[in-house]
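Next comes this protein.

***
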Amino acid sequence: MGDAPARLGVGMVGYSFMGAAHSQAWRTAPHFFDLPLHPEMTAVVGRDRDRVTAAAARLGWDSAETDWRRLLERDDVDLVDVCTPGDTHAEIAIAALQAGKHVLCEKPLANSVAEAERMVEAAERAATDGVRAMVGFTYRRVPAIQLARQLVADGRIGQVRHVRAQYLQDWLSDPTSPLTWRLDKDKAGSGALGDIGAHIVDLTQFITGEQVVGVTGMLETFVTERPLATASAGLSATGGDRTGPVTVDDAACFLARMSGGGLGVFEATRYAQGRKNAIRIEINGSKGSLAFDFEDMNVLHLYDAEESGRTAGFRRIVVTEADHHAYVAAWWPPGHGLGYEHAFTHQVVDLVGAIAAGQDPAPSFRDGLGVQRVLDAVERSAEKGTWLDV
């Protein structure tokens, strides 16, 4: 038998919704994939000693800390996974990179372009010493999205003419839902625009290989006052008698110009009744179209405009074939679909592989900065009521 792979000690900051998803990925990846490094779940960080200790036991971490700076001091931590609100991303990520720790940072990369630029500078300096950084645009790792990107790159739909991208949720539709950190601009940076709109911007640029170069947008806050949260877990919270102001957008819509000349229509909302996590992307090209909806995440629809009109129509592709589709060989027989959590595992696989190979992983912090610039342009456009270049 060969030597066991070298360990990669992981320290994670935050343990709520994203922390739980990342924990599942770190636990699962080495059991299903042959990784060149062995991730060890060394420490998780939270501010409350009792709660973070309980989270460590529940999620599978070896130890708990109450100050993220302790991760930078620990020789048994090689990588820092940042799963905190956006207002802390820059401080934690930059300090970790300067301490020689690899970094995985949740999206959006930061709360402002200026913060994101500083993070890119730190990441690119650290890369010269072999320290790697990646931003967690996890939906890139859905096999159907990988197939869509490959089909576009192969020229199957020709030149991109139109992009229609939506991220639709309804978890804030109830006006009595409590005021959590995601509704506080100081912590979250923006509302639906950054929280979920960032994903469809990244997916559009990833699939098409093009950039959003100009936008005109609208933002709206439908409920401006909500009960203050007395307790929260993930997207759920309990509210008290006092209320506070909502300082972010509830919905964002914008038109865009793509770098290849095509047009884009983007919508992100947490008020789409009945839509739980609908990421819908349709791309129309000169030779065909692609369509995807995350609520049916194992399926991609392809239309070939060059097929005879007698039989032409959207083809439903079940993206679960081990010989043809990314990641699925490690999982189940064809047709046994993957779920939300699998993309996080694939993210770990790609990041660990890049670190072991001495390569910069994707999406990079610079990719995250590119998305941040689009979000910033949409926000400024909505304020001014005008078209802005990105």
User: Anything to note?
Assistant: The first helix runs from residue 17 to 32.
